[in-house]
Amino acid sequence: MALNASRNDLASGAIFIAFGAYFALEALRYDFGTPFRMGPGFMPVVLGGMLIALGIAVAAKGLGKPDKEAAPPWPLRGIVLVLGTILFFAATIRGLGFIPVVLIAAFATALSSSRNTWLSALVISVGLCVLCLLVFVVGLGMIVPLIGPWLRF
Amino acid sequence: MDLFASLGLGFSVALDPINILYCFIGVLLGTLVGVLPGIGPTATIAMLLPITFSLNPETALIMLAGIYYGAQYGGSTTAILINLPGESSAAVTAIDGYQMARKGRAGPALAAAALGSFFAGSAATFLLAAFAPPLARAALNFGAPEYFSLIVLGLLVSIALAHGSIIKALGMIVLGLLLGMVGQDIYTGTPRFTFGLRELFGGLNFVAVAVGVFGVAEILRNLENEHEREVGVKAVKNLWLTRDDLKRIVMPVLRGTGIGSLLGVLPGGGHILSSFASYSAEKRLSKHPEEFGKGAIEGVAGPESANNAAAQTSFIPLMTLGIPAHPVMALMIGAFILQGITPGPNVINEQPALFWGIIASMWIGNLLLVVLNLPLVGLWVKMLSIPYRVLFPAIVLFACIGTFSINQNIYDIYAIAFFGIVGYLLIRFGCEPAPLLLGFVLGPLLEEHLRRAMIISRGDPSIFITRPISATLLVLALAAVLVAVLPSIRKKRAEVFVEED
Prior knowledge:
Chain A has helices at residues 7-27, 42-62, 76-96, 98-111, 118-139. Chain A is mainly α. Chain B has one domain.
């Protein structure tokens, strides 16, 4: 793609603008107040505006200056598996309980590296499960059901 | 209370067997994460924050501090043995340290690094003990306008010392400030940016943001290009320095300690800057500059002393003003708050045992580190052969379980995933994560002091420039930005910050 601009600058500028716009627009719904008595909306509106301006500046600076290095490959498998694991952990820790969640989560994360095989991932997940049990439940006395209510009959 | 009585109190706390044990655990973990590339002290402390919740405040902070300065030691081992800085501040050590290792002088290089670090750490801790109390007393006179200006100064200086684009760093700070505003407004109680979720009324969880931006984002970054490390040096022999070596490192260690102590106080990465400053100073002052880059022992001893001195003095702004000098210190603030203590000038008076205990523990920690690092270096070499593919699932799980155990709040875990992907994207597009975290921690403080100052002045913003201390701080902040945009400094920055964290 012949894009005569720095992709990095455009993308980070866009992220800044998106966040700035969200915060500023949402904050407009709160009481703005006066400089004497600032309301809850004052700082977010001002800072959100600044972030939008900075985002535009970052993007503008990148125009006409393409990145010198090629972008590294996207770790798609890693993104899906690592983030998926974290979401899975959040969604099921209360229901499934500590042991099953840690086993599955460790297995899935380990597979996000192309260097792990099914077998090594399994070994890692069992090892980690034992380690986490010792550290958090035995060592630190964390209160969490080991086998959750979803698995009880 | 005079200095020696205070230190006596400090040692009585630090020499408590439980505290020694946790100090040892701290420096051990610190060395471990310092040695292993791909996981740094920031992510480690973020993950361990929840664990420290159940400990005494003294014990918890002694351990966390130990992780931080322990990582500075460990980072040099990796730099010397495999030419890869385990920790960003050890990047300079790799230049000459690795060359020494290739010539079979890994032992003396490690010894020079450890002895220099020990001396620098001990000397800088003394400076911390001597200068913190008067500074804290001065800070007690600060009102809302002064605090506001001080926070602005802290934020802006962090840009001057961070690498990469200045506008991007500014953007990251503002983004951090905004994220810090999530939750109930302090004055009116209005919930802001909470999506109506009760769980977000207390604000975003600091640990979740830190773990996401520093831990998960870093893992995704490492998964882009997977390659195995090679350990060139299998065994380290001959740790003793010759008489000639000793003579050559005395002055570099002293100078490094001075440079590091001074720069460490600055917000935003003083420990990285100081090792570079020390290296270039040694090269300039050396009688045989041609040896630098080919295994000059001065090039190892100087920077290593500098970054360790800076690691200790960076506690000064934290303990006296409650202002973090860099992300690790921001995490330390989180640790104080978790323990119900507001960091700032009052800590020294209200919690003298805590304050002096932490300082005294730094000497003990530094001593433990020499013991850990020199005789046990073989163990650390073995550690380097743990493959990353085993390491990172452990990091992800520890992050999740640790964060969950603080409040049993599953939204904190969703926040890790969110900040992991946002952090990864921003880092990939060339933005530094450190200013964001600094902004996030300081955001609520900044807003509170700004609003309070404006109420004091009845809406007149000139209060910030008519009060002398506040005006001075703002001028310094402006100067920091001007210095950062000056072309000659810009070029230097590009040379200096070539490594990644």
